[in-house]
Amino acid sequence: MNFDELQKSWKAQPLTVPEQSPEAKAQLLARWRRQQRKVVLSNIGVTAAFVVTMGVLAWVFLSWHTSHGWLFSGSLLCMALLLLVYLWVIWRGVVFHRPVFSLPASAYASRYVAALRWRRKTITTFVWVYMLLLWLSLMLYFTSVLEGTSMLMRISAPVITTAYMVIVKFAIRKKQRRQLNETDSLIQDFSALTATEE
Amino acid sequence: MVAENRAGIYRICLAYLHDRSWADDLYQEILLQLWSSLDRFRGEAKRSTWVYRVAVNTAITYNALHRRSSHQELPDAIQHLPDDATGKGQEQQMQQLYAAIAQLAEQDRLIISLVLEDLSYKEIADITGSSVTNTGVRINRIKARLMKLMNPENREDEL
After folding, report:
1. Which domain holds residue B21?
2. Residue range B133-144, pLDDT digits in tens
3. Do B11 and A101 touch (CB under 8 A)?
4. Which DSSP category does A97 fall into?
5. How many contacts (CB atoms, under 8 Å) link A and B?
């Protein structure tokens, strides 16, 4: 027996390629992984930015808390808590469990759908609540630090901050809509896959 | 692109992990990786080369995570190779071939599978990220070892 004969036999061997995972399932899990990867990367970025922000908040508090009242400390504390809660919210939407392809979708789909629903809620509700509370905390902070300054200062700082937050919210609107569409589509497809396999 | 190479991918999985259920799992993982990275295929390599590259990389990662090809004992059915390979059915010959491949080093199993799939040295070099010369030398060495394992007379020396 030589190698060429072996090669011929190799390619001619009768083989039953597994069929239990159709391409639709592979595509769905691939889409899930892609979205998951994006979410994790984005969360890492947000976490890094928030850690720096909390450092700045701590520095502001330690440098000036003696010269300001409870409103100053309270607003900074609120901001720090908001950042922490927001980090918990975004990381709660991540599933670290990798899908085992050969298992039926029912073994993992419910977990994924729950995470996707949480991500959806984050975009539609939590982000708004977070921004509103952050805005309120910032207004309290301004009230405290701008006490005794000129009227122009007391008005312009909150107005500029509010305008900035509105612009940011407006700028990410398209991205959020895209994320929502993708999330909805994944929820729908995972539900359909589970129903089909049952 | 994936459909064209399904059988080849599955044969590589079987050669790499021996056990059919693990091979099935790896095969599905490779399909998933292919679908995940389809948008990264820029047409710089041949489609089949790209597919096999993803398959090989996934197999290595999968094995690193699960250590499924590092078991010491082969299943009984293929551990005791038949003494005489002549005049045997194709199935038996394949069993013998898989048993021989199982005795190769992990990387060598993947390379010889690619050779058996009739990929050129250049394609295999592209897939494994080595030079064509090194790949050629390595393939010849693996082929010689495989033929030795497949040949009952020579196998006695090996064992």
Report:
1. 3-158
2. 999 999 999 999
3. no
4. P
5. 79
